[in-house]
Design goal:
Elements: H1 9-26, H2 30-35, H3 42-50, H4 60-80, H5 82-86, H6 92-101, H7 104-115, E1 124-127, E2 143-147, E3 152-163, H8 165-170, E4 175-181, E5 191-197, E6 203-208, E7 219-230, E8 234-235, H9 264-301, H10 317-344, H11 350-375, H12 377-380, H13 386-393, H14 403-415
Parallel strand pairs: 1-4
Antiparallel strand pairs: 2-3, 3-7, 4-5, 5-8, 6-7
Helix pairs in contact: 1-4, 4-9, 4-10, 6-9, 9-10, 9-11, 9-13, 10-11, 11-13, 11-14
Bound molecules: flavin-adenine dinucleotide.
Length: 423
């Protein structure tokens, strides 16, 4: 077996292209949109829609190198600014859900606007979390009822913490993928996802969350009140397998691979996380690298040059810290690339995606806090972006499955326990 860690030429080209984009387009407005929480970063959104989304070379890089390049892009752009990255007009998690659970026709229909050149920017989002259901996604209470008279689904419920939820629910062409249950008594088998196009009557934006970090990102609360969508907006199949009803209430912990249901609706929706977790891990790595690179440059400016080759007993405390930070970052990146590479190859990557997410979420939290600590008052000051990176870091340890949930999934996969046994 050959193990190679080299990136392809296309990936390397994309990497350097997105770093330049981050440097030119994101860093100069990073503080502006951290302070102006929720304001639409018009210059960035327009740039991305007109030029940025077509990639390093007319879109070729993304097309050829697939998922690994998506992760490289995420790392570079979050090195620029994680909040602005999340505000980019893209299908985002909504698109991942449509790809994971939707038919070819649904993929073509709902993603069409994103492929068009020109027009106004479009956003996608995914709404799972509710006031009483986050880690335990199977506990959601939003309902979907079928109306045979009109051939429509009627959605009722409230969704919170929906990333890109403002743009996706209000701007024409956008959509929110909403998780809802067809039958609360039937447990996870009855949970399906529905595409709700922006502006659908009954979908109401209640507001955006004020947050510690990623303040440029619109984290929305959405209410669904008799919100009607066509029958075909249900992703996957509508049937609920009755034998699954016995599992009602079993904690799912955002865990897909031990679900014995053959229903692509729920399983497909859960599989979204196998794609999204490596991306979040890459985002975390980008923020961590921003802090670490800055720290090393600033130390050098102050005359402290890290001696990587010094024997351990001769290393200073700062050298030990920086070398540990580098090791954590590299480990997170390699786990991320492995999970992404497996995704590219169509291999099951549930374990690897959770490993990468758990490692990177923790690493970025530690690295950014340490950078602030070592820089002291300078690190704490708003004159620099280091304190912002520390605030932007923490979310990577929370969304797309918290640190604890991803560790649980890793333990289940390694020990071969079901979510019913190890929860
Ligand atoms: C900025 C932001 C953006 C978000 N974007 C989206 C989005 O786009 N779409 C969406 O649907 N959701 C989104 N979320 C929601 C996010 O995914 C959830 O908040 C997260 O999954 C945690 O769920 P919870 O809020 O119910 O917390 P809880 O599950 O109540 O967790 C609270 C604490 O308990 C721990 N915990 C929970 N269960 C266990 C267990 N079994 N074992 C050990 N520890 C456990 C958790 O790790 C955590 O530390 C977002 C959240 C934030 C803050």
């Amino acid at each position: 077996m050959t193990i190679r860690f080299d990136l392809s030429e296309g990936s390397l080209r994309a990497q350097s292209h997105y770093r330049q984009v981050a440097l030119d387009q994101m860093r100069p407005i990073s503080r502006k949109y951290d302070l102006a929480e929720h304001a639409l970063p018009r210059e960035w959104v327009d740039y991305w829609w007109r030029e940025g989304r077509f990639g390093a070379k007319g879109g070729a890089a993304l097309a050829n190198d697939g998922f690994v390049t998506i992760c490289l892009q995420a790392e570079q752009l979050c090195w620029g600014d994680a909040g602005l990255y999340l505000r980019m007009p893209t299908p985002a998690l909504g698109g991942s859900a449509v790809s994971a659970a939707g038919t070819k026709e649904q993929q073509a229909k709902f993603m069409a606007g994103f492929r068009e050149v020109g027009g106004q920017p479009i956003w996608g989002a995914m709404a799972i979390t509710e006031p009483h259901a986050g880690s335990d996604a199977a506990a959601i209470e939003t309902t979907a009822e079928f109306d045979p008279a009109t051939d429509e689904w009627i959605l009722n419920g409230t969704k919170i913490f929906c990333t890109a939820g403002e743009g996706a629910s209000t701007e024409p062409g956008g959509f929110v993928v909403v998780w809802a249950t067809l039958d609360k008594a039937a447990g996870r088998a009855a949970i399906k996802s529905f595409v709700v196009p922006a502006g659908t009557p009954g979908m109401q934006l209640l507001g955006c969350e004020k947050k510690l970090g990623i303040r440029a990102s619109d984290t929305a609360t959405l209410r669904f009140e008799n919100c009607r969508v066509p029958k075909d907006n249900l992703l996957g199949r509508a049937e609920v397998k009755k034998q699954e009803a016995a599992k009602a209430g079993e904690a799912s912990s955002k865990d897909s691979s031990k679900d014995s249901s053959k229903d692509k609706g729920f399983k497909g929706a859960m599989a979204t996380f196998d794609a999204s977790r490596p991306i979040v891990a890459a985002m975390a790595t980008g923020v961590g690298r921003a802090a670490l690179e800055f720290l090393i440059e600033e130390l050098a400016r102050q005359g402290v040059v890290i001696r990587y080759d010094a024997p351990p007993r001769e290393r200073t405390a700062i050298e030990k810290d920086v070398i540990e930070m580098e090791a954590d970052l590299q480990a997170a990146r390699l786990l991320t690339w492995r999970a992404a590479w497996m995704m590219n190859k169509g291999r099951p990557n549930n374990l690897e995606a959770s490993m990468a997410k758990a490692k990177a979420g923790l690493a970025v939290t530690k690295i950014t806090q340490k950078a602030v600590q070592i820089l002291g008052p300078l690190g704490h000051s708003r004159k620099l972006l280091v304190e912002k990176w520390m605030r932007d870091a923490k979310i990577n340890d929370i969304y797309e499955g918290t640190q604890q949930i991803n560790q649980l999934i890793v333990a289940r996969r390694i020990l071969d326990y079901s979510s019913a046994v190890l929860r």
